[in-house]
């Protein structure tokens, strides 16, 4: 049965902001989510058992317990949730997954930030753009995040989440950042954290360690990035649409 199982009933959240960390182009969401969970020492809050997710058991080094591949972590003091994923969500299962988690967001008054990499050449620091559903354009305006320069679309599981939020009238933000299409991009994640998550969620994020550990992060996540490249155009990414408009 598709569901979100909450483990920490004693954690009280008041209209929390959620940062989505599904693996995608440049692993921007994955790096961002992992950084937040580690930096704030966030506690395991819930497990996702949604259609579209692989039925696998995850284990971490020097620990014997197993975990589901997609989990929610919480920081009660910051009213912050992070969706952390150790596996890609299959494109074919993305609609069912989006239905499952969006229903839970609606029931729990969650404001999601969906993250996507835009594979294009960067001129200096990566540019960050924002799109929104419901009434969330006000959050983008307050944070000074501009719309994308060109027409485009968000594919894969994150695209399915944004589309589902739009149909439901759920307030949600999609943060689109220029990123390296071939390798993990901690610099793009830094921009998302500093200029997207920080002002919208109202949390102060230290990105110094992220920049210092760029080499280590890239080495550790290159295999996952290769898996996502094998998925081709159906993996989570943003891309421009040119031609007939």
Can you walk through the features of this model?
With 245 residues, this protein is α/β, with parallel strands linked by helices. It has a single domain, classed as 3-Layer(aba) Sandwich (Rossmann fold). Helices cover 34% and strands 26% of the residues. The chain is built from seven helices and twelve strands. The strands form three sheets. An eight-stranded mixed β-sheet has the order 1-3-6-7-2-8-11-9, with helices on both faces. It has a two-stranded antiparallel ribbon with strand order 4-5. A hairpin with a 6-residue loop joins strand 4 and strand 5.
Series of H and E elements: EEHEEEEEHEEHEHEHHHE
Number of domains: 1
Task: State the name of the first-level CATH class.
Answer: Alpha Beta
CA-based gyration radius: 17 Å
Silhouette = globular
Strand content: 25-35%
Mean of all residue-level pLDDT scores? 88
Looking at CATH, the homologous superfamily is PAC-like subunit
Largest sheet: 8 strands, mixed
For the termini, the CA-CA separation is 41 Å
| DSSP E strands, number | 12
Assigned CATH architecture? 3-Layer(aba) Sandwich
- Main sheet: strand order: 1-3-6-7-2-8-11-9
> Which class best fits the helix and strand makeup?
alpha/beta
């Amino acid at each position: 049965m598709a569901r979100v199982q909450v483990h920490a009933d004693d954690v009280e959240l008041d209209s929390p902001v959620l940062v989505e960390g599904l693996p995608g182009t440049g692993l921007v969401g994955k790096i961002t989510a992992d950084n937040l969970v580690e930096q704030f020492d966030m506690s395991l809050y819930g497990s996702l058992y949604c259609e579209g997710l692989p039925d696998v058991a995850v284990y971490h080094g020097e620990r014997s317990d197993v975990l589901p591949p997609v989990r929610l972590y919480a920081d009660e003091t910051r009213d912050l949730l992070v969706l952390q994923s150790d596996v890609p969500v299959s494109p074919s299962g993305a609609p069912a997954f989006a239905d499952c988690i969006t229903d839970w967001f609606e029931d729990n008054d969650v404001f999601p930030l969906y993250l996507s990499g835009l594979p294009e050449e960067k001129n200096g620091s990566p540019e960050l753009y924002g799109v929104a559903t419901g009434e969330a354009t006000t959050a983008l305006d307050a944070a000074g995040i501009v719309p994308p320069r060109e027409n485009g679309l968000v594919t894969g599981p994150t695209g399915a989440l944004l589309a589902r939020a739009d149909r439901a009238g759920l307030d949600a933000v999609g943060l689109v950042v220029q990123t390296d299409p071939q390798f993990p991009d901690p610099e793009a994640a830094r921009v998302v954290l500093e200029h997207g998550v920080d002002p919208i969620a109202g949390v102060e994020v230290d990105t110094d360690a992220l920049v210092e550990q760029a080499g280590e992060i890239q080495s550790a996540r290159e295999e996952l990035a290769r898996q996502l490249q094998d998925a081709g155009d159906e993996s989570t990414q943003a891309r421009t649409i040119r031609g007939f408009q």
